[in-house]
Amino acid sequence: xxxxxxxxxxxxxxxxxxxxxxxxxxxxxxxxxxxxxxxxxxxxxxxxxxxxxxxxxxxxxxxxxxxxxxxxxxxxxxxxxxxxxxxxxxxxxxxxxxxxxxxxxxxxxxxxxxxxxxxxxxxxxxxxxxxxxxxxxxxxxxxxxxxxxxxxxxxxxxxxxxxxxxxxxxxxxxxxxxxxxxxxxxxxxxxxxxxxxxxxxxxxxxxxxxxxxxxxxxxxxxxxxxxxxxxxxxxxxxxxxxxxxxxxxxxxxxxxxxxxxxxxxxxxxxxxxxxxxxxxxxxxxxxxxxxxxxxxxxxxxxxxxxxxxxxxxxxxxxxxxxxxxxxxxxxxxxxxxxxxxxxxxxxxxxxxxxxxxxxxxxxxxxxxxxxxxxxxxxxxxxxxxxxxxxxxxxxxxxxxxxxxxxxxxxxxxxxxxxxxxxxxxxxxxxxxxxxxxxxxxxxxxxxxxxxxxxxxxxxxxxxxxxxxxxxxxxxxxxxxxx
Length: 482
Known about the structure:
The chain is of the alpha/beta class. The chain has 3 domains: 3-134, Ferritin (Up-down Bundle), CATH 1.20.1260.30; 153-429, Rossmann fold (3-Layer(aba) Sandwich); 448-477. The chain is 46% helix and 12% strand. It has 17 helices and 9 strands. It has helices at residues 3-15, 22-49, 63-66, 75-91, 101-111, 120-130, 138-153, 168-178, 195-208, 212-221, 229-241, 299-310, 323-327, 331-342, 404-410, 424-429, 449-481, and strands spanning 186-188, 222-226, 250-252, 269-274, 311-322, 343-350, 364-371, 377-382, 419-423. The protein has a 9-stranded mixed sheet with strand order 3-2-1-4-5-7-6-8-9. Helix 5 (101-111) packs across helix 11 (229-241).
């Protein structure tokens, strides 16, 4: 039986359970079960590779001891064990200062996890299906990795959960262009389910890891923070799938809840790749962690200020920002002035409508900057739709191959129908408005409101002038008759 058939079977079983309501709960339910199964499979490897390895999970709660036997505990007995025994214990694991950091990972995963299933019989069926996958088998793990990506993408149609998923093509392109190196610390301060981190792992492994020592460096380089419990759980599981042995540097926390001044030099990072939440507001009080000039409750703007703070000198960032952050005034203007004075904002890739459909139709941009030197000029690249497309959709998402245009242009830049350059001085003179349209293409929409108003006023003047001339001619003709 194939891995894809197994996962489809699991989803079909969950749909029968009265306690699991909708895609978001189904994915959350599958999340903690997958975590325990994958963690147990990885522990089999740790027991072979680490002398004296001892599991951080108490013996009776290890997957192998309650779930692996297809004829094992089921029905009400299984529900009672999961709800009243295992969950209570894993939520309150004792963690000491010298404890194995894997224990902290397990406790963080289960702190806000929940068993939605009401039928212990159906839960046993799901468990038995999961046991068909061997996560120590490279083929199974690779196939499941592809399926897991699709599971995370399903979050797009699960209400607000859609904010956790950034299209794979976007994460991969950003990571490819930022090009994190082996010895560089890599952070996503709003990591969601781990899309940017997994791309970074694959990128560094594929280009720079050539030995066990190199792999050890990579293991220590990856870090992320996620505010919400479900995407954090899914991200930690994603890290295990991508062979991060101890994903303790993926924390369940709110990066913005910490005063900006408290970020010390030792915590600064070399690379940030991220898609901070946009279109929403932070809870009251979070903005007070930031200097007065930059206080706002708009999440994306706060993250931009944070990133400028936590990057090391010559540190690099690739991030997603909505159009509103480019043309907004007030606090947004001051943030953009800080960005251009302290960082080299060398590239803005303007994405068309629909990249984040069906979650949101907001137009977005990819910003690339380096900390430590002011911006002299900004290159813009307008990403076109593929031929025949008028928008993207769930069935027709943006693809990594489309970014070949940008990649070909990246190192040998020149103006074209898609690319143009603007001086930082011109941006400053225009009130730090970064929402600069492509001057090399005709405007297909109704046009710029300011320009339209000017044209309308000119037209009114021309009409008035014509009316006056006609009136003068009529008066002259009437005077002649009289």
